[in-house]
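From the pipeline queue, job 12 of 40. The input is one protein chain; the requested action is below.

Action: predict structure.
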Amino acid sequence: MGKVLHAIGAFSARRAWAVIVAWIILLVGVGAAAAAFQEPTDDTFSIPGTQSIETYEKYGEEFPGAGGATAQIVIAAPEGETLADPDATAAIGESVAALNATDDVTGATDPFQSMAVAPDGSVAYISVSYAEDAGQLPDGALDNATEAAQPMVDAGLQVEYAGTAFTPQAPTGGAGEVIGMLVAIVVLYITLRAVVAAALPFVTGIAAVGVGVGSVTALTGFVSLPSTATVLALMLGLAVGIDYSLFILARHRSQLLEGMENKESIAKAIGTSGAAVVFAGATVIVALVALFMANIPFLTAMGNAAAATVALAVIAALTLLPAVMSLAGNRILPKKMRAQVEASQNGTAEPVVAEPNTNRWARFVTNRPATVLIAGIVGLGIIAIPAADLRLGLPSAASQPEESTGYKAYELLADGFGPGFNGPILVLAETDDAADGPANVAAIGEDFAEIDNVAFVSPPVPNADGSAYLFQIIPTTAPDSAETEQVVHDIREVEASGDVTFGVTGETAIQIDVSEGISAALPGYLAVVIGLALILLLIVFRSILIPIKALLGFLLTLAATTGMLVAVFQWGWLSGLFGVEYTGPIVAFLPIIGIGITFGLSMDYEVFLVSRMREEHLSGRGAKESIIRGYSHTARVVVAAALIMGSVFFGFMLDDDVIIKSIGFALAFAVLFDAFVVRMTLVPAAMALMGNAAWWMPKWLQKIVPEIHLEGDPEDRKVIDVEPSKDDKVDAGSR
């Protein structure tokens, strides 16, 4: 691998402008495709084959015209008044007529005729039905509804809009992402102390993200994709794109300080650190692509979109980065170092030996490995405790920003009709018995009414031929509550009489099925990720204990991150600090997405740290000295990389969407826990306890496992003949 990457780096450095122009053409082409083919995203999360989806499809067949998007226009009278006022009644009638004349609307009901007025007369709603699903509606659906509702606004009524048909498309990118990138720039400058060097990782990261996100956007014209696919691709692609470039750039800078010529150094940096980047990127890509195993289409789409962007980030780091580094030359170094480096390259001065500073933290950890290891595990274990109360679900309209029309409509409906009104449960009953069927259908309706936390069961509404009947069930509790989830399960357990069969659907039931489907897929996916981790690390480090240690560290990170997520987003602890307005069940697909991404990122830092330790070990140094020197070579860059990635993820926490906010929060804490606690603290402590045994592998296994050299080709490695350090002598004696 090293020789191939070395050749790629050498070519990109020699043909710098050709590579840069190729990337520019690619960016322009993808941008044009995105502009030409972009269509609205589809955020109706569902799992084909579940009872709720199959019933929903039957519902559309049995009640033609009822399978499209629906929404409500919620109307509230001024305080102290009711909607029975003649002016209010007239304005509502005028707006209903305007809605029925609007394109794409198949029906809008008058609340006074459909019994859609609250008991106190202060709140009502107009039900609006569309011919198309929410994902296929034109962008102007909300604007058209707003125009039709203008008579009610002119009459002094409060008008709000609820339902997916009226949810505007969330923009990709915002102030939070900009703030995150600004923090990343500051971290890069502090780490590299040169403006040009700080800019280069952004050039490659933004180029990769531009192509990746542009491609995903263009694909919306051909396949159904959720908006979270684009956001996840942006979030992950930007973070890893900057980090991967930083690791290669740091290696290149250290080689320049040793007197290596610019293009030669670029090629070697790509051949060595580039190999670690390829492996790190491959682990993220494989973990994300493996999401297809869950057999959930929207998860597969999210995983593939993010994986493609990560792949582009790796390609950019291996091609575009060496090209721009070649043009930048020694300007990637601080001014004070340039003259000395140029002199060493010209042979007029001795090269600067890039010896690492003795890292005090590394020595502290390796001198007290057992104490540090126990303290770290206990600390992460305490943070992980809330994870035991994890409850999965999908956010309701209550999760929208308090100033949004969707949230205001939700609150008005809850106040006027009860909290369960926002999550109606639909039951479709079918029968072929024309004589006894209607009575049997009515009987199960009575059984539904006896279920705990059911506020209302509508009379069964027959279809045209009387073979299917529709019930609407209103629970007493909010759509995202555990009690409502139990109501759905209790409805499904009701036994029907005669030949009546029924299924449960509606947005609430669909969301519950999605949550349960993802929960069922989690153990299998986690097992695949664990097995993948063991195999990959076994090949890379040719060791038995290091893969096990890395895997346990990943599980600690995962548990602690889940604990933080539950504490803040489900329990509401420190919610004000993190700007979390909505607390409830954790977004159902976040744990499985988090497993894939956290696994990939944790392996990144494991590879960058431990591969340098292995390089020192293979050069002839003792176990503890290899740990300290390898750590000291990489610690500064790993810290910077973690801060950069964490700041990018934290930037997404400023988004109003609770899904995006929770993903940014989870990934930010996963990176910080894994980098600073697990990799920078527990890894050197564990390796110090293992000593030389860390690198042991049975001879029979050595013959089977292929050799991959992330540290460069063996023939290029300089073997150092050194006496064991004092620490290594002590360790050897104790063993």
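Job complete. The first strand starts at residue 70 and ends at 76.
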